[in-house]
C-alpha cells in the first residue's frame, strides 16, 4: 500500500470525556501527531477509529459484512 492516508477529520471537532473526537474518533494525541505520523501509523490510527466507531454503533459498512448498505 503506497497510497497517501488522508485525515479522517470531518470538521466536527469536539473531544468527549474519554478524549475521543466525536467527529473522527481519534484521540487528542492522535489528532495532534497526525502530520508527523508515517503512513503505516496513520493506517493503525484509522483502524482504531473504526473500532471505536463500531463499539459506539457509529460505523456503517458499504459492504455486505454486516448486511447493511448505505
Characterization of the model:
This protein has 70 residues and is mainly alpha-helical. It has one domain (1-70). Helix content is 33%, strand content 0%. It contains two helices and no strands. The protein has helices spanning 28-33, 39-55. The chain starts with 27 loop residues before the first helix and ends in a 15-residue tail after the last helix.
Question: How would you briefly describe this protein structure?
Answer:
The chain has one domain. The protein is mostly helical and 70 residues long.
Number of helices: 2
What is the residue-averaged pLDDT?
Answer: 86
Outline the low-pLDDT stretches: none
Work out the radius of gyration: 13 Å
Percent of residues in beta strands: under 5%
| Largest beta-sheet details | none
What is the count of structural domains?
A: 1
Order of helices and strands: HH
Q: Whole-Å distance between the termini?
A: 26 Å
Topology:
Layout: H1 28-33, H2 39-55
Which key phrases capture this entry?
single chain; 70 residues; mainly alpha; 33% helix; globular
